[in-house]
Amino acid sequence: MAMATSITGLLLLLLLTQGGKLGKLLLPIAVLILAGGSVFGGSSSSSVAEAAPYESEDEYISPYDMIDVMPTTFSFSSGAGGWSTQLEVTEFSREQIRFEGHYSDSDMGSGGDGYSGTIYFCDFDGAFGEIEKVDDYTYRLVLQEIGWEYAEGDSWVEDEILHYPTTPYGLADAYEVMLYLPGHPTADLTEDCLSWICMPQGWSMDNIPDQLECYVLYNVNEGLAFTAFD
């Protein structure tokens, strides 16, 4: 099509070189055709292919690519006893997913010399790395670093309450952590993982849906699971 257009334009220019009224009349038409326009209006077609979208040579999938609206807050809790560990994702990069968190539990009936109750807690931060896509609903992460401010047992009494630092329950002994996306078949999850998901999802172990309805961070080494919601 482009070749036919060019030939038509050249023929018109040839007529133009012959001079006369006909050449003057055809001048603007020849210029328009050679420029890729259309005498009859509308857009012209082109034989030049559009550039293909850029594709990275490596297979890295950033967290934002793997889940467009990934929640940043995950919770680990049994629903009994009032304890929980909250994890907040604070930063994404190619190399790491950084986070910070807080574990807390209390026993107001646990008193002693100068105190009438005990609060157990841990403020921590760390990073996941070595992000690897396993399938459309699963990503493997490695806990590269984790730390907390106070040594376990380095306690003090304040306002008649014993403040007792401990480790970050749910991640203290983690290494491999699986990130499961909504839609992941529940039949492929371990019983330990499902037992921690059931309470926050309102399921029973005898009535589990076929697919996950939430995001899950599963600590493989300890069999513990954090959940998040849309």
Write down the Rg.
33 Å
Largest sheet: 10 strands, mixed
Which structural class should the secondary elements be placed in? Answer: alpha+beta
Low-confidence stretches: 2-16, 21-57
The portion of residues forming beta strands comes to 25-35%
**How helix-rich are the residues, as a percent range?**
10-25%
Principal-axes geometry comes out as globular
Number of H/I helices: 4
H/E element string?
Answer: HHHEEEEEEEEHEE
Distance between the termini: 51 Å
The mean pLDDT is 76
Number of strands: 10
Describe this structure in words.
With 230 residues, the protein is an alpha+beta fold. It has 4 helices and 10 strands. The protein has helices at 2-17, 20-34, 63-66, 191-201, and strands at residues 73-76, 84-92, 96-107, 117-135, 138-148, 156-158, 161-165, 176-180, 215-219, 224-228. Helix 1 packs antiparallel against helix 2 (20-34). The two termini are 51 Å apart. The relative contact order is 0.12.
Could you outline the blueprint of secondary structure elements for this entry?
Elements: H1 2-17, H2 20-34, H3 63-66, E1 73-76, E2 84-92, E3 96-107, E4 117-135, E5 138-148, E6 156-158, E7 161-165, E8 176-180, H4 191-201, E9 215-219, E10 224-228
Parallel strand pairs: 4-7
Antiparallel strand pairs: 1-2, 2-3, 3-4, 4-5, 5-8, 6-7, 8-9, 9-10
Helix pairs in contact: 1-2
